[in-house]
């Protein structure tokens, strides 16, 4: 038979009919089950069987199909069954093609290629005329090279991370209708107010909570401090005035002592909360280390 050679490894093969439409692959083999026993029925079944006839040298060969072959360097269109190279296109000389697909675009089909130098190129079929050559993304991550694929209507997909899919388009028509094609993954809901966390709930809950300076040392948590330990109270002079002043100082001292006791009690509660936060952070660090050791040697597709 005829030997066809292309530069680089072959990436994609497809077949077109005489009108240039893509021929779908045959996915169901032809089989004949439950052949009838009647002789006449057997003859009819034999007539229905497909017969392959190879054309002779004197018989005229009509081209009824085209084979599109894309390699890392070039693309060729072969006419069948004569196996003549009808069209040929050198895709790249300094780089190589990572992915090549036959896709439908604007009621037609074309050959879409993604090169290692970051260029996205499209060619018409079966004539292989260049339609598009645009710089997009150079090969910096092997995950992109393994997962990049073209889809119909001028779109392409690849994994930008183990859990994120990047979607792009190189068609103006698709770009104009992009807003209508976007879907909503989440329903916006107002965030409810956080409930009050008790000491034991914060200790055994394990969740981290955000605290600010006002919440730790403000008046709402520690109480209002006394502005002075003694206060001058004007009164009548003499012994009565001294007694009144002394009683006022004693009252202020008693109130200041009571305020200090309350502040010390609240500081003790704050210290207990801080210890609970330290214990919760230590527990979270321990569990995170265990999870890291558990999934250290697993790949992204094993999750």
Automatic annotation (TrEMBL):
Membrane topology summary: Peripheral membrane protein
Transferase is among the record's keywords: no
Annotated PANTHER family: LETHAL 2 GIANT LARVAE PROTEIN (PTHR10241), SYNTAXIN-BINDING PROTEIN 5 (PTHR10241:SF22)
One of the GO biological process terms: protein transport
Compartment(s) where it occurs, according to its Swiss-Prot or TrEMBL record: Cell membrane; Cytoplasm
Molecular functions per Gene Ontology: GTPase activator activity; myosin II binding; syntaxin binding
Family membership: Belongs to the WD repeat L(2)GL family.
Keywords linked to the UniProt accession: Cell membrane, Coiled coil, Cytoplasm, Exocytosis, Membrane, Protein transport, Repeat, Transport, WD repeat
Region described as Disordered: 25-59
V-SNARE coiled-coil homology domain ranges (all copies): 238-298
PROSITE patterns according to UniProt: V_SNARE (PS50892)
Classification via Gene3D superfamilies: 1.20.5.110
Protein's UniProt keywords contain Transport: yes
Protein name (Swiss-Prot/TrEMBL): STXB5 protein
Xref: SUPFAM superfamilies: SNARE fusion complex
Pfam families: Lgl_C
Main location: membrane
Provenance organism: Neopipo cinnamomea
Annotated Gene Ontology cellular component terms: plasma membrane; SNARE complex
Basic and acidic residues bias locations: 28-44
